[in-house]
Amino acid sequence: MKTLTKIIVVTVLVVGLAVPAHSDVKKVGQTGLQFLKVDMGARAAAVGGAYTMIGNDANALFYNPAGTAEMDKSLDFTSTMTQWIADINYSGVGVVKNLGTFGAVGLSAVYSDYGEIQGTRVASTQQGFVETGNVDVGAYAVGISYARSLTARFSIGGQIKYAYQHLGSNVLTEGGESVKNEVSGLAYDFGTIFYTGFKSHRIGMSIRNFSAQFEYEETPFDLPLTFNIGTAMDVLDIFMPDHNNPLILSVDAVHPRDYTERIHVGGEYWWNDLIAIRGGYKFNYDEESFTAGIGIKPNIMGVDMKIDYSYSAFDLFEPVSRFSFGVAF
To answer: Which of 112, 43, 47 lies closest to 83 in space, CA to CA?
Structure first.
């Protein structure tokens, strides 16, 4: 129990140091390409986004690439669809190949569908404008990653992403040339996972969306850089050393560039490595809060089929649903 007490104390200190005193200044409106912040994967979203330390499959590409080094399969593939607010849809895919002692390589892609947006232009009409048809808007990011376990207890991983966004085109002056509103560039993710030596307890960190400034016309802006410190553990290890149904609890302390510090808490219970029940909560959000979900993982002819669903509650908007499908073998 002395060891357990030390682990709890260290975890509390890590999370406490990562979350400074509350501030009324929320730093909103300081970043662009907001689609890079949205949770990808129903499993991760169901545990409140507290996925920095428990991601051990292709979903880890969107949270902490070091997690792909923890993968115990030869190949893992995931795809997800998010029905976001305001009729916006996000799609994501990821695939990771386990290279054994040489680590793991992965590919990821995220696509944003903003739906139909009616364009207008100022004109000398009774309404003061004329319609110009639908505006072509969208965004995507593609990445390549590499991760490796340097020791039995320590893993690192990194990802390079190419991010692109276009917000249609506009005419600056009547009769003038059409100007495309688009930006693109590289962004970087990095993460670590360290097993403390006490049961399955691990701690680590991730940095996502580190990049140089992007620029629309002559207005520069930053990407949504996010720094996470996380911890996780199968708490049943304490009471039942030999068990087959893990109950994993995870906590992430989140420091975003464009908001005050946040806390993500999540839990996941597996029954016979077949059915998973998940829940979580996001603290210090204007809209998001409670999350929940379920997953099944039947093994068919040696192939794990992964089907996941998550529910995310919002205060003012309709709840958000995510659906994921994946295979691993």
So the answer is: 112
Cα 80 to Cα 205: distance, rounded to the nearest angstrom: 24
Question: What is the chain's pLDDT, residue by residue, as a tens digit (329 residues)?
Answer: 444 444 444 444 444 444 444 445 566 667 889 999 999 999 999 999 999 999 999 999 999 999 999 998 999 999 999 999 888 999 999 999 999 999 999 999 999 998 777 777 777 787 777 777 777 788 999 999 999 999 999 999 999 999 999 887 776 666 667 777 889 999 999 999 999 999 999 999 999 999 999 988 778 889 999 999 999 999 999 988 889 899 999 999 999 998 899 999 999 999 999 999 999 999 999 889 999 999 999 999 999 999 999 999 998 899 999 999 999 99
Q: Which residues contact 65 (CB under 8 A, 6 or more apart)?
A: 106, 145, 146, 147, 157, 158, 159, 189, 190, 191, 206
Residue with tokens 């990445």: 143
Q: What global pTM score does this model have?
A: 0.87
The domain defined by 2-328 carries CATH number 2.40.160.60: yes
3-state helix, strand, coil in the chain (%, to 5): 15, 55, 30
Q: 54: closest CA among 307, 206, 233, 197?
A: 233
Contacts of 136 (CB under 8 A, 6+ apart): 166, 168, 169
What would the two tokens of residue 298 be? 């039947």
Structure tokens at 40: 């990808």
Rounded alpha-carbon distances, angstroms, from residue 108 to 79, 95, 221: 10, 7, 24
Euclidean distance between CA atoms 275 and 307, whole angstroms? 10
Alpha-carbon distance 297 to 253, whole Å?
Answer: 29
Alpha-helical (H) ranges within the chain are 2-18, 42-46, 236-239
CA distance 102 to 168: 43
Q: How many CB atoms lie within 10 A of CB 212?
A: 11
Tokens of 49: 């986004």
Instruction: Give yes or no for a contact between 328 and 76, defined as CB atoms under 8 angstroms apart.
Output: yes
The C-alpha angle with vertex 287 and arms to 281 and 291, in degrees rounded to 5, equals 30
